[in-house]
Amino acid sequence: MSKKKKHLAKSNDKVISGVLGGVAEYFDWDKTITRLVAVVLCVFPGHVFGGILAYLIAAVVMPDADDDNRHRDDDEVIEGEFKEK
Fold first, then answer.
1. Nearest 5°: CA angle at 40, between 35 and 44?
2. For 34-81, what is each residue's pLDDT tens digit?
3. Which of 49, 25, 51, 26 lies closest to 40 in space, CA to CA?
4. pLDDT at res. 48
5. According to the model, what pLDDT value does residue 78 have?
6. What is the DSSP string of 14-69?
């Protein structure tokens, strides 16, 4: 039995761009709690600009969930020759 590799990708369950949803899916965390913790960590210590900048960078760098699923399916392709009858 092969174990599927986890890939960090944006979630299809998006609020803004799917970054925090993707992080929650990767670590098997609750999405709402993950989003609330991220907002509190950005606002409470006063690092709003740094938090927004980190989020924007992650939104640009992280692949979309659809792209991630397409690459996983490529591992299961069986190569061979097709002959016409």
1. 165
2. 999 988 988 887 888 888 888 899 999 988 887 544 444 455 556 667
3. 51
4. 85
5. 64
6. -SSSSHHHHHHHHHT--HHHHHHHHHHHHHTTT-HHHHHHHHHHHHHHSPPHHHHH
Lookup: tokens for 42: 């950005």
Is there a contact between 78 and 23 (Cβ–Cβ < 8 Å)?
A: no
pTM above 0.70, yes or no: no
Query: Can you tell me the distance from the alpha carbon of 73 to that of 10, in angstroms, rounded to the nearest whole number?
Result: 17
- Token couple for 13: 């369950």
- Look at the block and give the residue holding tokens 């092969």: 2
